[in-house]
Structures are given as C-alpha cells and as structure tokens.
Design brief:
204 residues, alpha/beta, UDP N-Acetylglucosamine Acyltransferase, domain 1, 2 domains, seven-stranded parallel β-sheet, six-stranded mixed β-sheet, 31% strand
C-alpha cells in the first residue's frame, strides 16, 4: 500500500514536486498545507487541507515533504523541518525516476532529487535538500543539510557545501572547493577558490 504524503507549501516549487511524486509512484498525495487564506484551494488537483499549524494533528498516518523553495534564505525550510522533527513526523525522501543516483551515494531524509539530476558515487546529500533539475553532484561531493543546488548547477568532485547553502542555476564549482555555510552563489558563477561562511557571490 502506498504511503499517504502531505506537502508543506503550495507555491511554484510544490508544482514541480507534485510532478516528481506522481512519476515516482511511491506515495499518494493526501493534500497540502499552506497559509490559512489558501485553505480549500487546489494545486494541480490537490487540495490545501489546512494551515501549517495543523501539522502536529496530521502527523499520525502521514509522511511529509517540505515543498517550499529556497532562494533568498533557507530559514522557512529549516524551521518547518525542525517542527516536523519535534512531533516525530515521518519525513519522506523523493527521487525522480528520471534522475540518476549512484547506489554508492547517500541521500538524507526530506531531500528531493529532481528530473535529470545526477548524484555520483560516494557523494553525500544531507537532509531537507533540493537537488534541482539537471544539477550534477559529482563523486565524493558533500552537500550539507538544508541546501538548494539549483537547475543545471555543476558541483564537481570533492566539493563541500556548508549547511543552508544556495548554489544558483548553471553555477560551476571547481573540484575540492569548500563553500561555507549559509552562502549564496548567484546563477552562472564559476567558483575556483574556497569561500567563507555567509559568502555572497553575484555578477559584478
């Protein structure tokens, strides 16, 4: 029997997650939680059942996936993840059937691997991460908890990304570079040196 899944957050990223969940076929989407004024609305045919405050009441008999995005800050995703842990909720991991994840890689709970993404041998992806469409996480790379690796980003071998990092679309990080926690790297950047915590890298 398929597990019942509640999605937390009904925005644009949720739509992409729904598509992956439907393709994967391991879960039945029971509904969505969002802001109180959205209760009763539908997203791709699925109903917003309740506000996020109802999560403790929904914990029995459901798994959860956080489906809000992470661009400017990971704080909402981190907060919701901690709330799920606090009520001992089951947190799903979702991997698109159109992605490649090496059997020698590790994927944490609450993480979603989107279509066309590749996670190669001995790579480690932490909890509550987004590995977005066509991103590459090469061998021995470490993606810490609560990171978003955006569309088409290239994380080369041995790279380490600290917690709550955002790596923008089509950014390339050279092999064995360390990116400090809570860093933001805009789309299209090329990174050739280590970056400290809370770095901000944008086009000049």
């Amino acid at each position: 029997m398929k597990e019942k899944l509640i999605l937390i957050g009904g925005g644009g990223h949720c739509k992409s997650c729904i598509d992956v969940i439907e393709q994967e076929g391991h879960f039945v989407i029971a509904g969505i939680t969002d802001q109180p004024h959205k209760i009763g609305e539908k997203l791709l045919g699925y109903t917003v059942l309740a506000s996020d405050e109802a999560i403790p009441n929904l914990a029995a008999g459901h798994q959860f996936l956080i489906t809000i995005g992470h661009i400017r800050t990971a704080e909402p995703r981190v907060r919701l993840y901690k709330e799920l842990l606090a009520v001992n909720a089951d947190i799903a991991t979702v991997i698109s059937p159109c992605a490649y994840v090496s059997p020698h890689a590790q994927i944490g709970q609450g993480t979603i691997i989107m279509p066309g993404a590749t996670v190669n041998a001995a790579a480690k992806v932490g909890n509550n991460c987004i590995i977005n469409s066509h991103a590459l996480v090469e061998h021995d790379a470490v993606i810490s908890d609560h990171c978003h690796i955006a569309t088409g980003a290239i994380i080369n071998g041995g790279v380490q990304i600290g917690e709550q990092g955002f790596i923008g679309s089509r950014t390339m990080i050279r092999e064995y570079i360390n990116i400090g926690a809570e860093s933001f790297i805009a789309a299209g950047m090329s990174i050739y040196q280590d970056l400290p915590r809370q770095s901000r890298v944008k086009p000049k």
